[in-house]
Amino acid sequence: MKLSDKAEEILEALWIAVEEEGGAFLDPETVGIPMEDPAYAELTGRALVELRQGMVYFRPEGRDEGRMTIRRHRLAERLMMDVLNIRGEAGDYKACQFEHLLNEGVDAKVCTMLNHPTTCPHGKPIPSGECCAEARAQGDLGVVPLTEFKSGQEGEIAYIQTEDSKKMQKLMAMGVLPGNRIVLVQSFPSHIFRVGFSEFAIDTNLAREIFVRK
Amino acid sequence: MATCCAKPEAPTHNGSVKRVALVGNPNVGKSVLFNALTGAYVTVSNYPGTSVEVSRGTADISGQPWQVIDTPGMYSIHTITEEERVAREILLHETPDVVLHVLDARNLERMLAMTVQLIEAELPVVLVVNIMDEAERIGLKIDLELLRERLGIPVIGAATARKRGLEQIRGAIAQYRCDTGNPRRFAYSRLLERDINEVAGLMEGEYILSRRALALLLLQQDGEIGSLVEQREGERYGRIAEKVREIAFERRESFHLELSLERKEIVRRLLKDVFCAPEKRVVTWAERLSRMSVQPLTGIPLLLIVLYFGLYKFVGDFGAGTMVDFLEKQLFVEMFNPWITHVVQALIPWPVIQELFVGEYGIITLGIRYAVGIILPIVATFFIFFSFLEDTGYFPRLALLVDRIFKRFGLTGRAVIPMVLGFGCDTMATMVTRTLETTRERVIATILLSLTIPCSAQLGVILALLSKFPGALVVWGGCLLLLFVVVGFLAARILPGEAPMFYMELPPMRLPQFSNVLTKTYTRMQWYFLEILPLFILASVLLWLGKITGFFEKLVDAMTPVMASIGLPRETAIAFIFGFFRRDYGAAGLYELQTKGLMDARQLTVAAVTLTLFIPCVAQFLIMKKERGWRVAGAIGVFVSVLAFGSGYVLNKVLLMSGLLA
């Protein structure tokens, strides 16, 4: 059974308070969810947390669950910023809504797509998941910037990440569109890639903005 | 629905001459087709972005006169660069009776997106699938019949450089009827269609492009289209702009991307079973050569080989050596000049007028001799070399090789073309700086061109001048290189603006067609000569006037202290006065002084460096003014002159103190 959104938020806050700020418990008042809220009952009912003197404490099972919840939240933030290019408060807000969808394997897929990021946009660590460990073991980088490719390596364009819409259009005009096959022909002194039957040369700054899937 | 024909409200064109416009991606052979249709010649090469201006010509097609319009390459109807904008102007403001969309068969998949846009704009499109020969060579199979059926417009396979398909193209132009074609409507997703309809529905004015296409362009935040629509719609524009803003805001994250993906999907469906690529990539010799030219390990030696044989051996030894010797020494000095002097003296009794034609600075004995005897062979050999290289497709590869270094000067690899062309003619090169993306790049390139890049004529003369003193040649080269680096480096830091980005399509390497190289050299020579000959004659006349009035002597006297301060004999003032007209003219003047044995190695070196750096010739200055405006051109002129004499001064002192070249 999936936890309610509110319960997940409590878990996150508790995880931050305990794991990152070194506290022993969470004061419900700091989350803004009053003690009467059924979310607390939901959490205690699943033996994830316990309540003592009005404060929230982790149970061992809850610690893992909290870790995964925070992971989903921060992955969602990365997703908003890196891929969807939604930043600032809008990004945080969207991330809060989005994170609740990232379970049952979706988080692993997003994590892989983002190339197993280790920090969130605010600079806080993203707890690693199984997919990260697996990728590390296989040396699989998932989606990487074109600059990470070796000469001769072929892949599929995943997305373009750029602030400048002119640049984006220029790249798209050159056939750099998600889903197209791309071969990196050479990487020094400039990056040369082939899409279809055309070859293009671009500088490193531009190559860094093309993300490819192996 | 609007028809694909010129709308009655659209401005009707002069007389009954019909018009056909050539459009398409860069480097797909539009200009070759233009030349084939009109019999005229515009420069074509294996280099994306060769045409920066619109060319017009006339052609007789099936007994009817047509105006043919060649446009610079554009990647999409939604334009980004200046050249693309120029090309779109034709579609926006003129009403071509036929629009020939030329594309490269190998890249049908990528380029067909623009055909879709043109059809969507309800333009009278004929599709020319060009470069079929190379596509066949790599094993591509294209079902043009099926494509024609799916697009609902005439589709022609061609290889215009091989004269293939020209008849069919002419036929298609002549027979084009707006009702024969039945262009398909390409449907986007429901969401996008809704957005388009909402915007298009608010438009009531008459346009050359369809409202559907305009709506899409508005949604892509196209400023130019915005003002066009504003002009036509008047007060209605407020609501349209509001709607566009609303949709653009809703879809702000990814409108461009989504639109491109939808178009890609449309193209994919169009090309299903039409385009068949071979399983295995065919690797041609051209591709292997291409690989070699772009890898630093093999590319740099290859560059040196190209420079050694092309520039040093062919232009230097053959052009500036053998040919100049023959033309200038044997033909002019020994045969033509004595004869013409004799003839003129017999025809014209007044010595003063004789002087004008055959005197020391005579129009014929000096002006024509310099132009034909010294400059012509050097420039001709250089242009042959340049045109050949250009047609092989080598320049884009050179561009990517030097991009990293050029970035330090605030330029991108793209600037390599004007820089190399500058070694031929700085004036022409200054015009070509237009192909650079930002104004900042253009200004930096213009400065470097006017300061440190000697043009071929000057280069040839200076090489000949200094060849007897290898040390002098090294010092001269070193000075120019040093200034190039220092000025470039400083310009990149001082001039405001962002660092440019580099991207460039690499056309396949090809063996140049000999006839095209020659034609191109010929047209460039023609341009060059029309540009310089009047100046040479003018210079001769002014010098003659100066001499007979005594003004010239005074000017030389006035410049003597300046010359003396950089350690040069007063006679060099003459060369510098020549230099005001053309740098090569000045260099040729130095050449004469050297033959008379008036200068030693140090003086020659100082003079050569100062003159090379010195203000560009009148023609280049005029082009600078035209391209960059008075203020920038004037500032560059002053800066260059001061730096030239300053460097001459410093160099003279350094050489004197160090005893080098003594």
Word description of this protein:
The complex is a heterodimer of chains A (214) and B (662). Chain A is an alpha+beta fold and 214 residues long. Chain A has three domains: 5-64, Arc Repressor Mutant, subunit A (Orthogonal Bundle), CATH 1.10.10; 71-138, Winged helix-like DNA-binding domain superfamily/Winged helix DNA-binding domain (Arc Repressor Mutant, subunit A), CATH 1.10.10.10; 143-213, SH3 type barrels, CATH 2.30.30. Chain A is built from nine helices and eight strands. Chain A has a six-stranded antiparallel β-sheet. A two-stranded antiparallel ribbon of chain A has the order 1-2. In chain A, strand 1 (49-52) and strand 2 form a beta hairpin. In chain A, helix 1 (5-20) packs across helix 4 and helix 4 packs across helix 5 (88-98). The two termini of chain A are 35 Å apart. Chain B is α/β, with parallel strands linked by helices. Chain B folds into three domains: 18-174, P-loop containing nucleotide triphosphate hydrolases (Rossmann fold); 190-276, Helix Hairpins (Orthogonal Bundle); 296-498 and 516-658, no CATH class. Chain B contains 28 helices and nine strands. In chain B, the strands form two sheets. A six-stranded mixed β-sheet of chain B has the order 2-3-1-4-5-7, with helices on both faces. In chain B, strand 4 (98-104), helix 3 (108-120) and strand 5 form a beta-alpha-beta unit. Chain B starts with 17 loop residues before the first strand and ends with a helix. Chain A binds chain B through residues 84-86, 160, 165-175, 177-180, 185-186, 188-190, 192, 195-203, 205-206, and chain B through 75-76, 78, 80, 106-107, 109-110, 138, 140, 221, 253-254, 256-257, 260-261, 264, 277, 290-291, 294-296, 396-397, 399-404, 407, 412-413, 499, 501-506. Strand 7 of chain A pairs antiparallel with strand 9 (503-506) of chain B.
